[in-house]
Description:
The complex is a heterodimer. Chain A is of the alpha/beta class. Chain A folds into two domains: 223 residues, P-loop containing nucleotide triphosphate hydrolases (Rossmann fold, 3-Layer(aba) Sandwich), CATH 3.40.50; 70 residues, no CATH class. Chain A has an eight-stranded mixed β-sheet with strand order 6-7-8-3-9-10-12-11, sandwiched between helices. Chain A starts with a strand and ends in a 5-residue tail after the last strand. By secondary structure, chain B is α/β, with parallel strands linked by helices. Chain B has ten helices and twelve strands. Chain B has a domain of 155 residues: P-loop containing nucleotide triphosphate hydrolases (Rossmann fold), CATH 3.40.50. The relative contact order of chain B is 0.14. The radius of gyration of chain B is 21 Å and the shape is globular. Chains A and B meet through α7, α8, α9, α10 and α11 of A and α6, α7 and α9 of B.
Amino acid sequence: xxxxxxxxxxxxxxxxxxxxxxxxxxxxxxxxxxxxxxxxxxxxxxxxxxxxxxxxxxxxxxxxxxxxxxxxxxxxxxxxxxxxxxxxxxxxxxxxxxxxxxxxxxxxxxxxxxxxxxxxxxxxxxxxxxxxxxxxxxxxxxxxxxxxxxxxxxxxxxxxxxxxxxxxxxxxxxxxxxxxxxxxxxxxxxxxxxxxxxxxxxxxxxxxxxxxxxxxxxxxxxxxxxxxxxxxxxxxxxxxxxxxxxxxxxxxxxxxxxxxxxxxxxxxxxxxxxxxxxxxxxxxxxxxxxxxxxxxxxxxxxxxxxxxxxxxxxxxxx
Amino acid sequence: xxxxxxxxxxxxxxxxxxxxxxxxxxxxxxxxxxxxxxxxxxxxxxxxxxxxxxxxxxxxxxxxxxxxxxxxxxxxxxxxxxxxxxxxxxxxxxxxxxxxxxxxxxxxxxxxxxxxxxxxxxxxxxxxxxxxxxxxxxxxxxxxxxxxxxxxxxxxxxxxxxxxxxxxxxxxxxxxxxxxxxxxxxxxxxxxxxxxxxxxxxxxxxxxxxxxxxxxxxxxxxxxxxxxxxxxxxxxxxxxxxxxxxxxxxxxxxxxxxxxxxxxxxxxxxxxxxxxxxxxxxxxxxxxxxxxxxxxxxxxxxxxxxxxxxxxxxxxxxxxx
Lengths: 318, 321
């Protein structure tokens, strides 16, 4: 469906070049959910923005391919890309209040991609918007269609964003922390809605999140990012039951768990902090925080190895 | 034994303007009749979704806000109506850790001054003794003498939160009110800071009001947990009792909504319909009845009393009676 090959996206900053995404490779198959996980600054959001080429002015895609619909999105002319954005590929952002336009009604905004990409007239668009509002579970769509973003709750606004994103039945949905701004019970509603949409439309979903719980419950396969690179990639169950990279192991161990009654007095914590993106370590980027680091780890940058079919790890110790 | 903190019937209403041209002021009932106790050295987790009033409870207990009604006793002394001037000695015993370590540290102050300020204000140390005390505090939170002259922007988020914790500890409080102290931090850093809080709690026999929306963290850190919905505590119990045998349908739904990082365990989510109602206009009867999967006629007209279905386990639900 979409295949990202050796993607590198760098930022020019006054301090130097930031290698935000540095050789990322993954595929999202049709109808599947692919999770991209990592902590702030690991490059997961920049990966998503690179796919749609909606990067800030100081960022550039240095190399790589993003294969989609028999073309390479990295090399497509802007006009051709515009026919894909919000049509074949749509994006759902974390904060619907800042990504919806406050001066246009809900109905107008959901209708926009339909009118642009499918050339629908006003009347047909309104009918479809009503159907979409119903599909994403917004009660009383006849009233809501005329309302503005500020009149809706956070959960309702996220539903509007989703309605907008699925309006043109995109082949690929990219959701960047789609529920992070929402409360637990509303998050559950939205995750449920995303699952339902995928089941009915068959679109693929690239789900970007820092929440391993959400990944465990929704993703078919998952990649863990650290300092601009994917350090481990596997089917979700494999990754959670047989994590191979020390960073993945550390992340999973640092989650509070409650099985078997007695809680441990201390949580496992990964020492130190993420390296500054300006000044990445020469060898393995996780080496300074890694408990299993040996000399060879700092000497050369580790390559990706396939330790079991479909289970990729960037670690010489795994 | 007198509890360290004893809150009874606490209410905090905020006026909101009626309409475009003023009109009669309406009230948001942010906290509407909340009672709980915290013993010395105990951690009470306070959970609930945004707008449920948990932050307002924390701020009112600390008397950053003046309660509309109710009693707050700290070490047996009534503080709900104390004038601001009389609060200073109290502030030595109750301190706050904020959510956002970026916004709660003055960017123009050095770490030495940020952590030393409470000591100066309360005249607990001066001169060389002050500096030594600040260094000792920094070392307790995993920082050190070399950080004294640095400014907040030179630190990472986790380190800033450590500075905020050192500042709160400066006056040797008995109770810390921690409002989402970990939610601005990345997972790997959360564990570091939570371990630090755990150490400090044991070393100083600190009591906590631990306010959080993250149920995994609350379960890990708390002794008892209170669940808030629309300004009220709907359930309160020992941590394991609450998580394994919840009595209130809201608690049940909230627990079932939290994703578990284990793909081999499939659970059934209880999906609550709709949104939390407007706290300026809460529904009649039980406030949860508009979303409750178990609501029946009585819930729509009669607010449930708080009952104690098991010792130490309280719930406000007609079905728990």
